[in-house]
C-alpha cells in the first residue's frame, strides 16, 4: 500500500494538537532537497491553510535551484524558523541525522515525518517513508493527492508545488540522465498539470565563464588510478584559500570525470578546513556501487552518487584505503558473475 501523505500529515497535526509544521532538508541543500521541501510546503499551504508552514533550507542552497527559490512570493526558507509553540517536522531527502540542516528543530519537535529515497537511510523519525528511487521529489509526487497538487497550480503563481517537485526530479536525475519508468511518468504528469519545463530548466544553468575556467584548471589536476579506470581530483585547504576554490567549484568535477567514456569512477577530495575532507563519488552504479563503497568509511548515498566526510591529516593514506576497498569489491563482483 502506497504511503498516504495527507493521512499521515493530518494524523500528526491532529493527534499532537499542532498548528505549525517545519520542513527541513540536508546540509548544503541541492535541487532535490529544495524541490522536495518547497514542493511540500506549498502543497500544505494551499490545501491545509489552517497550519503555519515554515520551510528551512539556509543560505547554502546550490546556486541553480536558488534562482527559483529566490523568486518565491510565499516563503523565505533562508530565514531560521522562529517558533515558541509546539510544532511538527517533515524532513526530506536526508538519509542520516548528522546531515540534517536545522537539526535542533527536529530534536525539539512533537512529532516527525521523514520522506527519503536513499538506501542508506537510518530509519529515524516517528514516521519514516523511504523508497529507493532516482529523486526524493519523485517520491513526494507519488505520495501526494493528484487533485490537491493540481489545486496548487490553480491557486498560486510560479513557482508552485508542482514546479518545485519537477525541479527536484530534474536535478537529482541530471536532466533525466538517470531515470526509471516511474521517474518519466511523474515528470510527464507534472508537465500535463502545467509545469513549464523551460522555466524550471533555468535552475540548471548556474555556470559563468569564470566558473567554467576554474573547473578547467581543476580537471587538469585529475590523476588516473587503478589502470586508468578511476580518476580523482584532490585539493587541499591551502590551495582552496590561495586559488579561491569553493566546494561549489569542485563538486561537479566527479560527475565530469565519471561521464568520460574511458572512466568508470570519478571522485573529488576537497579539504574544506584543515584535516577535514569532503569527498564526492560518481559511478554508473554497476561497475562499483559507491554507496556500499563509502559506507565502510561512514559515508553513503546512492549506488551511482555518494559522499563522505573524513577527518584525517593523511589524505593519501585515506585515498589508498578507498582504492583498496574498490579493488576488493571489484574482485568479489567479478567472482560472483
Automatic annotation (TrEMBL):
The keyword Hydrolase applies. Residues 21-169 form the DDH domain. Keywords: Hydrolase. This is Bifunctional oligoribonuclease and PAP phosphatase NrnA. The keyword Hydrolase applies. Transmembrane segments: none annotated. InterPro entries: DDH_dom, DHH_sf, DHHA1_dom, Oligoribo/pAp-PDE_c-di-AMP_PDE. Residues 245-326 form the DHHA1 domain. It comes from the Bacteria. One of its GO terms (molecular function) is hydrolase activity. The lineage of its organism: Bacteria, Bacillati, Bacillota, Clostridia, Lachnospirales. It comes from Mediterraneibacter gnavus. Its EC number is 3.1.-.-.
Amino acid at each position: 500500500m502506497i504511503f498516504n501523505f495527507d493521512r499521515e500529515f493530518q494524523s500528526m497535526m491532529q493527534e499532537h494538537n499542532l498548528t505549525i509544521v517545519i520542513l527541513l532538508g540536508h546540509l548544503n541543500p541541492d535541487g532535490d532537497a529544495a524541490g522536495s521541501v518547497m514542493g511540500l510546503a506549498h502543497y500544505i499551504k494551499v490545501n491545509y491553510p489552517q497550519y503555519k508552514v515554515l520551510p528551512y533550507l539556509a543560505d547554502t542552497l546550490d546556486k541553480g535551484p536558488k534562482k527559483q527559490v529566490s523568486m518565491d512570493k510565499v516563503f523565505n526558507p533562508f530565514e531560521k524558523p522562529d517558533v515558541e509553540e509546539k510544532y511538527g517536522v517533515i524532513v526530506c531527502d536526508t538519509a542520516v541525522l548528522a546531515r540534517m540542516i536545522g537539526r535542533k528543530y527536529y530534536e525539539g519537535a512533537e512529532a516527525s515525518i521523514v520522506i527519503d529515497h536513499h538506501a542508506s537511510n537510518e530509519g529515524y523519525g516517528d514516521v519514516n517513508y523511504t523508497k529507493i528511487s532516482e529523486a526524493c521529489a519523485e517520491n513526494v509526487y507519488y505520495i501526494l493527492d493528484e487533485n490537491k497538487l493540481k489545486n496548487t497550480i490553480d491557486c498560486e503563481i510560479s513557482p508552485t508545488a508542482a514546479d518545485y517537485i519537477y525541479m527536484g526530479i530534474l536535478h537529482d536525475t541530471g536532466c533525466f540522465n538517470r531515470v526509471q519508468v516511474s521517474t518519466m511518468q511523474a515528470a510527464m504528469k507534472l508537465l500535463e498539470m502545467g509545469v513549464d519545463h523551460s522555466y524550471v530548466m533555468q535552475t540548471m544553468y548556474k555556470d559563468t565563464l569564470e566558473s567554467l575556467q576554474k573547473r578547467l584548471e581543476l580537471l587538469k589536476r585529475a590523476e588516473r588510478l587503478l589502470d586508468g579506470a578511476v580518476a580523482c581530483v584532490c585539493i587541499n585547504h591551502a590551495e582552496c584559500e590561495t586559488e579561491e576554490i569553493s566546494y561549489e567549484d569542485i563538486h561537479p568535477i566527479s560527475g565530469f570525470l565519471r561521464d568520460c567514456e574511458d572512466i568508470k569512477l570519478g571522485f573529488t577530495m576537497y579539504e574544506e578546513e584543515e584535516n577535514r575532507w569532503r569527498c564526492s563519488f560518481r559511478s554508473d552504479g554497476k561497475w562499483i556501487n559507491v554507496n556500499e563503497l563509502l559506507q565502510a568509511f561512514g559515508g553513503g548515498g546512492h549506488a551511482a552518487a555518494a559522499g563522505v566526510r573524513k577527518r584525517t591529516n593523511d589524505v593519501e593514506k585515506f585515498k589508498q584505503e578507498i582504492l583498496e576497498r574498490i579493488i576488493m569489491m571489484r574482485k568479489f563482483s567479478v567472482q560472483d558473475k
